[in-house]
Amino acid sequence: MYVVQCSGLLTKQLSSNCIRGGTRLASSFGQHENCGRFREYRSRVALWLKQQSGQVVKACTRQFEFIAAQRIRRSLQIFHLYTRIWDEVALKEFMKSWKHRAVRNARHFLTSSIGVTMYNWDHERISEEELNSCKRDIEEIHRLTNITLICPKCHLRVVIDTQQPDINYCTCNGGKVSATSNQDPEGWKPYIERQDMLIWRKEEPNSGGLFAYKVYGTFSDVTAEDFLQTQIDLDYRKKWDPTARELKIIDTDPESKESADNGIDVVYWETIWPRLFTNRDYVYQRRWIIDKEKRLIVIISKVTEHPNAPIKPGIYRVTTYWSYMVIKPYTDIHQPGIEFGLTYFDDPGVNIPSAITSWVAMSGLPDFLIRMRHASKNYQSYKLITEKENVSDVSHISQSEQIASGYNVENNKESETLGESDAIECDLDEEIEILTPETEESDESDEDTEDSIDEGRGLLRYFFFTKLFV
């Protein structure tokens, strides 16, 4: 610090005039001519400064460079220090987020790392309490109807969007009263009214503007048993629902009783989405029960994770899905006439504008309900055809066994065996030549059919609400 101060003092005192003649320094010293021994060194100091002025300037320059280098070095050290501190903070944040993901997906990580193929039914099973809590859904829907769809003045039905036949509607205020602005304390608002169907919806919290739906329907020509089987018979579902690309049971609760009145399964379901979208798939646990005492059928489906259904590349796995359905027959589960209630929410993982969502709901849902209604009415015919096909397959197998045994008895001689084998080979060659172009043509026609079906499935309304009744 002393060197810096001296250098600064010398730099201020020296100038170009001082370097050439030293006159300014001499004048400054001249003020102290009478100050003792200092007067004797005046001429010597002036002469020395004149002779060593170049060295002094060089020393000051080197000192300045040294100070500048020290400052730059200190700045770099501070920069590296803050960089390391930021790296540590970022590393801590990364570790924190990774730990959160690991905790959230611990079950998936464990099953994938150690190769465990067991599903924890004790932890994941839908409880009896949850089943019992759904048994009053029909009564809750009737209460919701009275709150949001009945005029308090005339006690008649209020129009939601369109009037339906055989219903007496409210005529207060010229019949211009709409129920879309009504709302119950839980947030359910009337949304759609079609023949034999009412739909409410409410915005689900923390879902980014998505809605949960509540459906109430009445089918006078469908039995509760057939309506249930239309939901749980996956082979039949793949026949009447063209949006189901893959639908299968991947696990069954080992503790569930083998009975026709209940069932607990884990189902894998892949749905076909329109072009420009990836297909969606679901892994969900489905539990259903027939309560004969209360004459109710309850079906609950909730998304889950299963080691036998890993995430497939190119398909979006839906992680938020639940549905609760209650079916109540008018008289008996084997007699026509039911009413059903469904509460449902699904997050498909794509932001669809609200206008498109409304159009999908108002046009696609009635079409799907009609298709499902016809499928329920035709379920018994499907069972008869399936049973006949099974019987014919069994009889065909027995006949082929008899023919094979007779063939072995008759062909004891080597010559006859060789001759008939040659004839069979010739016939097979001819059949291959004849069938090959036909199979190729059928394959092409199947491809064309699939393309046309895919084009027909391009509308959003064709698939959106099929998830309601999965």
Automatic annotation (TrEMBL):
Keywords: Acetylation, Cytoplasm, Lipid transport, Lipid-binding, Phosphoprotein, Transport. GO terms for molecular function: lipid binding. It comes from the Eukaryota. GO terms for biological process: lipid transport. The keyword Transport applies. CDD domains: START_STARD7-like (cd08911). Gene3D superfamilies: 3.30.530.20. Its main location: cytoplasm. It is found in: Cytoplasm. GO terms for cellular component: cytosol. The keyword Translocase does not apply. Residues 435-454 are annotated as: Disordered. Residues 184-381 form the START domain. Residues 435-453 have a biased composition (Acidic residues). Interacts with ACOT13/THEM2. This is Phosphatidylcholine transfer protein.
